[in-house]
Design brief:
The protein has 2 domains: about 5-45, no CATH class; about 55-165, de novo design (two linked rop proteins) (Up-down Bundle), CATH 1.20.1440.60. By secondary structure, it is an all-alpha fold. Helices cover about 80% and strands about 0% of the residues. The protein has helices spanning about 5-25, 40-45, 55-75, 80-100, 105-135, 140-165.
Amino acid sequence: MKKGTAKQASVCLKEEADADFGSKLKGGTSNAERRTPNVELKRGNAETGGGVRFDLEERLLDYAVRIIRLVDALPATKAGRHVADQLLRCGTSPLANHGELQGAESRRDFIHKLGICLKEIREAQRWLRLIHRVPLLAPAKISPLLTETDALIRIFVRSVRTAEKNR
């Protein structure tokens, strides 16, 4: 076997893996049914040479959509309406605040806006836990959203720490 042939074969395998993993992220597989936690995305990055990353803005958009759908499913009781209003505000605001932080005027402003996103997601987590505890909805409808909320909190905590360290 020639030296170039083995290298070409490994490049082809890497390209196939990149294409396969990339299609999974773009919705080519069951990713719509089962959200991919960050840990799996990071493993995927290592396997594919680090070229594939998740899009946080897209993830926050999906999160806001899921919050809106959950709010629409809450009962029309006094408690349901109160929780729905609060959750709708704090569950959708990280998307808008993330857009604001992309246009931050300074490093300090950037860190501040990251902190606002984190604060809102933590508030959403508390409302979701309340919905789960009461229960205002079936736990099966809330658990996946709580998992995504935990993942987003971890992302923003890490982002704040990194931004402060790089200040």
